[in-house]
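P.,

For your records, the input lines for the assembly:
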Amino acid sequence: MPKALKRFLLPAVILALGLAGLYVTTLVYAMGEALLAAVMLATLACFVWIYTTQKAYAYRYLFPGIGAALIFVVFPMLYTIRIGFTNYSSKNLLNFKRATQYLLEETYRADGSTFNSEVIPDGGRWRIRLEDADTGAAFLTGPVPLEQTEPAEQAAVTLPAVPTKEPVPDGVMTLREIIERQDALKNLVVVLPSGVHVRMTGLHELAPQRLQYTRNADGSLTNNQDQSVLRPDFKTGFYETADGEQVQPGFQVDIGWRNYTQIFTDASLREPFGHIFVWTVIFSALSVLFCTSLGMVLAVLLNWDSLRFKGAYRLLLFLPYAIPSFISILVFKGLFNQNTGEINLVLHGLFGLSPTWFSDPFLARSMLLIVNTWLGFPYMMVVCMGLIKAIPNDLYEASAVAGAGPITNFFKITVPLIIRPLTPLLIASFAFNFNNLVLVNLLTGGLPDYLNTSVPAGTTDLLATYTYRIAFQDSGQKFGLAAAISTVVFLMVAAIALIQIRATKISQQDKG
Amino acid sequence: MAIVIDKSQRWRIFAAHAFLIFLCALVTFPLLMVVSISLRPGNFAGGSLVPKTISLEHWRFALGLPVTTVDGRVIQPDLPVLHWLWNSVKVATLSAIVAVLLSTTAAYAFARLKFARKKAALTGLMLMQMFPTVLALVAIHSIFSRIGHAFPAIGVNSHWALVLAYSGGIALHIWIIKGFYESIPPEIEEAATVDGATPWQAFWRVLLPMALPILMVVFLLAFIGAVNEYPVASVLLHSQDRLTMAVGAKQFLYAQHYLWGDFAAAAILSGLPVSVVFILAQRWMISGLTSGANKG
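Structure tokens returned:
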């Protein structure tokens, strides 16, 4: 029995999971998230195929890990490229369907009398009493539960009202309770005997409200207030009036290469982009140079047999690598503070200097390099120590016989022998610093900024932080533009990766 | 050593020590300074490395206890340091578990099983590693806000979103575990297979118990990686009570709300455990990679 059970248990579980997944996918599709549903469907199909086919046995082990990598690493990269061709931004945030829905839910206050209202308890439920502000005629609705619901999730509740002669009873809902149940109250549509629909317009007031727009058969919207017609423009991503006035919210549309032409032709964007690119390259190259030279010299010293306390030095010098970088970077931000920072206190005490680290572009850039060297040299030191250990000792013995000094040894033996295996790591380090968002974002935030740019661009910004600021810190949140710049950076990183693969191959050939 | 010791040797050793001590001072200066600052009263006070008066107000702030100022006012700390730390630990633990689960099985397939396009898959993993997530932040944000429309529990501003976003970054872990599996002779599992074990049993009952040390190393690496991760977390988390330490810490140093002393205490509180674990794991990693496996 257990054997038979085992044989059917796995397929049964897979089938159940598959069906459950299919159900959820349908729900997601019904919510208008077609892309998400498609990804889920593809994942689901792979899942069922892999875990039911004997031929795909090896993939059963790979599927979870590789699937996660494909969905959360590879897919976002491809999706970035895709977003680069759209106008996705805070103004064009929603998709067309949702933007249309948003407009169709807009209301305006229509003509007609307003009603003063009280909410009257009725055995755990509530009735609304309305009194015409002009004529004094009173109406009472049936009881309704006013549960606190998630805002916006609830559809409107229609509630008929009948005329009443009774005065306002005691124990009506207090202002505070009304505010607490505001969301539920706002969802009520009270229908008066005359057929007028009224909704909550104030805490103690209901008034006729009408939907602002009606959709026409051709997809245009008629404004019920002034009978003007809005048409969706799929080039700009907005509903527009006849004279071209755009109505918020906009929606996402494809705009082709416009983001790219903007980067390379719009002067207010092209100039900072060029400056930032140059600085990114300089920053990465200098970071690698400083970290590697310092790390290499230290590695040589710490491999020197005659030197004592090597273990203690090694541990202390390794510290910057062990400390979480978000902490050490912020520590430096405080230490470099122009007014109260300890570094300026020391400099002022010793030399009478107080450099403006954060407002002078050159000093800010120097500060970034100083901090990055502090953060990065231990890694290079550890790597170089390993490589130097592998150099055969008789080389140094021979050079000592020939009377060479330590400096000759360093430049003629050590460096030439470790530079080959080191090259792939140097390139990787270059690529890392090319996108060193954490350092710049936490230390300077890209500041000080260039003047006269259409989107904020800083003198210490790297390409990665530049796109980050465009997408997440600038009020315009130009995701499309940021994604286009990211795509350009992708190409640069791909080029660096190609060089790295070649270098790795060469250094491996040396070994073999 | 066969190198002849000449007169200048002593001077060289002296110079090397001087240089190393100078560098060690440069490296430790910021760290000692932070300890000193965390014990000084006030957020703006300058002073010597050894504080003249010791005050625990910053530590009280970091631990969420009310602070009494000089003029007698009682201030409740407005930055939930312990809560952020707890969020960090929670996200990091979950992502580390996910990372170990996903990478240990994938590494088994790469190390032991035969399948089509294995080499291409390995190269693909390596390539993937080269493209930093920083460049895909816009897409990651957009994807999770879309997921959030359908499932708010795993959308933007949820910790599960972070765990999911981190779950893809396992290429390095797969490499480490794969290297370890390959150091274990396949005969051990073959013997189990001869005795009637399925490949899954051979993996689960035989190979995995031997790989425990390396799994611990990967767990710690993934844990530390998730605690230290800033870009994705800063994009996905918004509300104050959801932030991780990496995202929250910068709020101490806003120009208009500058809490230098409080930051120092919070930095030590959150940074010290991670650093110690890292230094320990670093040694352990080397021993975990070289020992543990039977070599014959």
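Two observations worth noting. The radius of gyration of chain B is 25 Å. Residues 151 and 257 of chain B are 36 Å apart (CA to CA).

Regards
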